[in-house]
Amino acid sequence: MPHALARPLPEAATERRADAELLNGAGTTSKSSAGGLATPSMRDRASGFSGHAWSPRGLVALRSVTDVRAVFADPSTHLWIDLQDPDTETLADLARCLDLHPLVVEDIAERNQRAKVELTGNVLQLVMFPLFYAGELASVEVDLLLGERFLLTAHPPEWQPSSAPHFRRGVEPFLREGPDYVLWAIVDWLVDGYFPVFDKIGDEIDELQDDVLGRPSGWLVERLFQVRRDLLTIRRAVVPQREIFNRLTNRDLPLVRPERVPYFRDVYDHLIRLTEELDTFRELVGSTLDAYLSTVNNNLSEVMKRLTAVTAILAGVGAVAGIFGMSEAGLAFQGADAARFWAVALAILALGFGGFLYFRRIDWL
């Protein structure tokens, strides 16, 4: 989010002096590259380390674990630390600095968790899954750790919490109010991102229903099963998160201020609406698949009726021709009894035409 925090030069110079005073007051002895901040190491850059710290003296940009250690010593400081694909060394350093439980650090490093909320010691751990389209529907794991004075977010590069629209005017107004307010801004944007995905799924289902009734074909089955796979992906991401915000809004958690609970309850209401729409989509996909199978069976029945009608006509014609046709034709070619041949021929034509009219009348042809 550095772009959202750009300021005029005089104000930026004042902020850099405030950064230097804050870091020096916290006891740091590191050299400053710009604005009194320690020069980030190559490992910090590789791990996608960024962050912000707010205190009554102003906002500080964090570029390394050393910066975090320096400003965290001030009890009036609020921090937001953002990690993109963090390595184990960076996580270990932050764990020692922020007093994180080893199991929480292991969950972030492995990144194979389900959507959940857990209170471990003095840290509230949330695991959520944003949804986005990258050719097809995909989801990634995002870990959010809320402490008394800090928020830590860990995520892959496909999803950036700094892009939340709440931060267009900067993170300072949120971080000033506390890390739980920053947490709300991130999860609110994450959940709101589900609605465009649901709209696209709903439009796809509407198109499938029209195609099933208008021109059913084999590729419709592929699209239907793709939509069903997408719905399973959405279900794994969205449904467990209802429990997350149910706990955040209905239980007394010391890390979430009472005045912040209505904000999280609004997110919870969005998730309830989404899960209801998800159930509706699943029913629509199931009914669309049933309609497709019924349409295919009906078309097959129509084909079988036509084949049956043609077979019946040809069988009747063949029976008469087999009994009379060869003998009468032989006599006719010998120049004798030609009248009987033409009589049999006309009878065969009349039988075939009569059968055709009958099956046409009962709509089999």
Strand order of the largest sheet: 4-3-5-11-10-7-6
Q: Percent of residues in helical segments?
A: 55-70%
Proportion of residues in β-strands:
5-15%
The CATH architecture of the domain at 1-163 can be given as 2-Layer Sandwich
CATH topology of the domain at 1-163: Beta Polymerase, domain 2
Structural class: alpha+beta
**Which CATH class of the domain at 1-163 is shown?**
Alpha Beta
User: How widely separated are the two ends?
Assistant: 70 Å
Mean pLDDT: 81
User: What would the principal axes of the Cα set say about the shape?
Assistant: rod-shaped
Q: Strand-and-helix sequence, N→C?
A: HEEHEEHEHHEEEEEEHHHHHH
Q: For the record, what is the CATH homologous superfamily label of the domain at 1-163? A: CorA soluble domain-like
Tell me the number of strands: 11
Short description:
β10 and β11 form a beta hairpin. Helices cover 61% and strands 15% of the residues.
Description:
With 365 residues, the chain is an alpha+beta fold. Among the domains are: 1-163, 2-Layer Sandwich (Beta Polymerase, domain 2); 300-361. Helices cover 61% and strands 15% of the residues. The strands form three sheets. Strands 4-3-5-11-10-7-6 form a seven-stranded mixed β-sheet, sandwiched between helices. A two-stranded antiparallel ribbon has the order 1-2. A hairpin with a 2-residue loop joins strand 3 (49-55) and strand 4 (58-62). Helix 3 (65-72) runs parallel beside helix 4, helix 4 (88-98) packs antiparallel against helix 5 (102-110) and helix 9 packs antiparallel against helix 10.
